[in-house]
Amino acid sequence: MASTVWKGHLTFGLVSIPVRLYSAARGESISFNQLHKADNSRIRQVVYCAAEDKPIPRSEIVKGYEYEKDRYVVIEDEEVKKVAPATAKTMEIQEFVKADEVDPIYLETSYYLAPDEAGEKAYALLFDALRKTGYYGVAKIAMHNREHVVILRPGKNGVLLHTMFYSHEIRKVDEFRTDLSLVKEKELAMATSLIEAMVAEFEPDKYKDDYRDNLLQMIEAKKKGQEVIAPPEPKEAKVVDIMEALKASLAMAKKPVASATAESPAEEAKPARRRRAGG
Length: 279
Hints:
With 279 residues, this protein is an alpha+beta fold. It has helices spanning 77-82, 120-133, 185-197, 210-223, 242-263, 269-278, and strands at residues 4-12, 15-23, 48-49, 54-55, 63-68, 71-75, 90-98, 107-115, 135-143, 146-154, 159-164. Strands 1-2-8-11-10-9-7 form a seven-stranded mixed barrel. Strands 3-4 form a two-stranded antiparallel sheet. The longest helix has 22 residues, at 242-263. It is extended, with a radius of gyration of 27 Å. Helices cover 28% and strands 27% of the residues. The protein is built from six helices and eleven strands.
């Protein structure tokens, strides 16, 4: 069973729902250990006290906040708990907003919000209401030594919670802009046809982390003493005329559709729709 990240009550109006939070996703990458080049032995990082010029055990470490250069105030864990806001135990929905007004750039980390004991009915009511109204809930919650504004939205099986970046955390980049006056109608029509020809169902399982897979294959090859072979580099085509590039891309997008239709009559309806969209 997934471990609980946060436990408390979700409230809106006078309705209180006991809930738990579980992590909905986590990134995966290949990790490496640091070794001594001479003998491949593990390197151990030592906690070192500069004032006493000696290593110290981790049991002697405390938290400190630097309020001036090289001057600190020591903070104990119990003191942190004493000043925790009410949102450390209760998450109150402050308002509801239209789903299409929430820019995904504000969404940070995703969690599953599940009902705790005796909270199933009220939870189901909130979930169904969010689904049918098209609104998201906005609430506050304190966890991981920080108070977060969060977005509550209906997922496929229940309510999903996303911590939200604050407005001042979103980087405003002047160069991030689009000059739509550069777009010509014929080019737009051709680009639209190419997009429609490449339409497919969203199936997350079919997307793979090729870089991670290549690293694992390389590690396995080195374990067996085999030579590491680099994958072929992709050829970059120089785009001279955007219309010619679009036409060639559209022709390439149509080829697999034709072969798939010939091989699998059961799939005939789906490729036919794509041909009409592309034509």
